[in-house]
């Protein structure tokens, strides 16, 4: 009896608390505090001081007191809201048509949509400038016939490029939700006399509101965060990310304190939009059974041709940037001008003169990928299998940078790590850190998803045979998680090699990457070099996409 009621000693209680996963959780929380919380805290702290080092709200007063600054905020919100609406108007009908009916060339549409999604937005902006800029191919051709199509620069051009770049988020998310919803709900509404467009608007789409809102949120956040497209197409139409860049790296006179204040404002906007989305979703229950998925049916010939024509037209237009850039990369150049004939000079130039930029891209991406795989394994296991308030906090902190502009993250890291004790600004390490923080959510979410599908009894059986929990994790769980983890890691790799918004804040002459070089070459009219690099980047993305689909057990063709 006394033995049964024996109070564990201090050493026994300490040993129980200091198990492998508790130690890992503490270490991961410390890492997030140092590399995520501290940089953002530093940014907020610096925004409350003026150039003389005095505590002041002058930066916020300056922003909201001058039309030039707060107009950039309104411009950003106007673009984000408009792009979200236009992306939904294109993505929702495309998703409904391809998930409910047989559509001509659906496999081509899926591939075209994914390829258009994974290329950098500023490459799309650059290609549309080649087509519809002041000296663009289409603009010049139509002008010879006396047709003036107007300017692609400014609000209209930015919205067009963003819409064609971002509607795939809506298409992919909503297609998945429509394919897995319970068909009996739509059948019941049909029995009640609700059919056609009325059924879509009153039954089908309301049932997948969480998915629609999630896709819309991603479109909104991506448009808010993007720097390259409005920088190339905006001209006098300023948006907040460009303004932050201008204030931080202005050649005339930078104001880093004001840049910090504007970064805080954009963080608050992102957090507010995310909060509103969660409140709307949590207001109702959207659970349903997916045991009876909807059947894919045939349309009458006329409607079939009309629906297929719409879907294929959008998919082909989405690929215009890649097609235009690839074609341009083989044209002969005379300085900044294209001349008659084809040439490989642009490719020779990037291979011999810009080889370091290409190697930097791969080296930084692969290093960040290795870190993301390791962290994805550990964090996903803690979030799914070791649930607690601390693990929930860890999940939130890791996901938080995902909804923020890359330029804001870049400024945070520079301000935090440009002096001791961790002085890594200007080195490759801050680039790798930025990529890891910004793209880890891809790897983490795929790891969490695969872990939920693994039966806990497999792990319990290993432990019951005397294998320690730590050894069970590395010898059993890691092998089971690896397919899903690697799929997310490949997406992270694609996102890293295309990243420009944070890189353009952090890079130096020794750490310049392909995406920054493309952006710089476009600005200095090096169109052939930019096209060759962009084509190479697209080819790498296609190869990575094939690997991703193979890992996911799908045939890319």
Give the tags.
557 residues; MetI-like fold; mainly alpha; 26 helices; 2% strand
3D architecture notes:
The chain has 557 residues and is mainly alpha-helical. The chain has 2 domains: 60-326, MetI-like fold (Orthogonal Bundle); 342-557, MetI-like (MetI-like fold), CATH 1.10.3720.10. Helices cover 73% and strands 2% of the residues. It is built from 26 helices and 2 strands. It has helices spanning 10-17, 20-46, 58-65, 67-100, 106-118, 121-132, 137-144, 155-180, 183-191, 196-207, 209-225, 228-233, 240-249, 256-282, 301-318, 320-328, 345-353, 355-385, 389-399, 406-416, 428-452, 456-464, 469-497, 503-506, 514-523, 527-551; strands spanning 331-334, 337-342. The relative contact order is 0.12. The mean pLDDT is 80.
Low-confidence stretches: none
Structure annotation, total helices: 26
Task: Name the CATH homologous superfamily of the largest domain.
Answer: MetI-like
CATH topology of the largest domain: MetI-like fold
| The top level CATH class name of the largest domain | Mainly Alpha
Q: Write the H/E string, N to C.
A: HHHHHHHHHHHHHHHHEEHHHHHHHHHH
Give the number of domains.
Answer: 2
- How do the strands line up in the largest sheet? 1-2
Helix content: over 70%
Share in β-strands: under 5%
CATH architecture title of the largest domain: Orthogonal Bundle
Largest sheet: 2 strands, antiparallel
Pairing-aware structural class of the strands and helices? mainly alpha
Radius of gyration: 26 Å
Kindly report how far apart the N and C termini lie: 69 Å
Q: What is the count of β-strands?
A: 2
Which outline best applies? Answer: globular
């Amino acid at each position: 009896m006394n033995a049964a009621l024996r109070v564990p000693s201090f050493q026994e209680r300490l040993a129980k608390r200091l198990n492998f996963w508790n130690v890992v959780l503490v270490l991961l929380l410390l890492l997030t505090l140092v590399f995520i919380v501290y940089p953002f805290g530093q940014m907020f702290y610096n925004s409350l001081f003026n150039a003389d080092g005095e505590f002041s709200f002058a930066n916020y007063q300056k922003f909201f007191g001058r039309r030039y600054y707060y107009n950039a905020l309104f411009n950003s919100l106007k673009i984000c809201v408009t792009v979200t609406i236009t992306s939904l108007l294109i993505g929702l009908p495309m998703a409904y048509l391809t998930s409910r009916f047989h559509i001509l060339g659906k496999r081509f549409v899926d591939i075209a949509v994914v390829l258009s999604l994974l290329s950098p937005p500023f490459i799309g902006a650059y290609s549309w400038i080649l087509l519809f800029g002041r000296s663009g191919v289409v603009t010049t051709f139509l002008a010879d016939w006396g047709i003036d199509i107007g300017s692609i620069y400014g609000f209209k051009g930015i919205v067009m490029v963003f819409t064609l770049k971002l509607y795939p988020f809506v298409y992919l998310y909503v297609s998945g939700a429509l394919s897995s919803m319970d068909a009996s709900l739509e059948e019941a509404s049909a029995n009640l006399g609700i059919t056609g467009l009325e059924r879509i608007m009153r039954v089908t789409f309301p049932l997948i509101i969480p998915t629609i809102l999630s896709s819309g949120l991603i479109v909104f956040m991506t448009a808010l965060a993007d720097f390259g497209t409005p920088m190339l197409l905006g001209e006098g139409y300023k948006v907040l990310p460009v303004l932050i860049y201008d204030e931080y790296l202005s050649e005339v006179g930078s104001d880093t304190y004001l840049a910090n204040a504007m970064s805080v404002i954009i963080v608050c906007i992102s957090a507010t939009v995310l909060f509103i989305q969660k409140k709307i979703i949590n207001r109702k229950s959207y659970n349903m059974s997916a045991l009876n998925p909807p059947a894919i049916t045939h349309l009458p010939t006329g409607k079939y041709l009309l629906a297929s024509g719409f879907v294929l037209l959008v998919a082909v237009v989405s690929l215009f940037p890649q097609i235009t850039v690839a074609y341009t990369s083989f044209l002969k150049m005379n300085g900044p001008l294209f001349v008659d004939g084809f040439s490989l000079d642009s490719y020779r130039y990037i291979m011999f003169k810009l080889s370091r930029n290409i190697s930097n891209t791969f080296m930084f991406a692969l290093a960040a990928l290795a870190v993301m795989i390791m962290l994805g394994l550990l964090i996903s296991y803690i979030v799914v299998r070791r649930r607690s308030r601390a693990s929930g906090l860890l999940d939130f902190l890791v996901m938080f940078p995902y909804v923020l502009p890359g330029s804001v993250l870049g400024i945070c890291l520079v301000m935090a790590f440009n002096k001791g004790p961790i002085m890594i600004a200007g080195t490759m390490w801050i680039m790798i850190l930025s990529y890891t923080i910004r793209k880890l959510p891809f790897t983490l979410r795929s790891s969490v998803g695969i872990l939920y599908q693994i039966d806990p009894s497999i792990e319990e059986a290993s432990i019951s045979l005397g294998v320690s929990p730590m050894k069970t994790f590395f010898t059993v769980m890691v092998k089971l998680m690896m397919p899903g983890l690697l799929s997310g890691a490949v997406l992270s790799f694609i996102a890293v090699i295309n990243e420009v918004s944070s890189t353009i804040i952090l890079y130096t002459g020794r750490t310049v990457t392909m995406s920054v070089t493309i952006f710089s070459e476009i600005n200095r009219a090096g169109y052939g070099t930019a096209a060759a690099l962009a084509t190479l980047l697209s080819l790498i993305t296609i190869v990575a996409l094939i690997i991703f689909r193979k890992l996911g057990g799908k045939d890319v063709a």
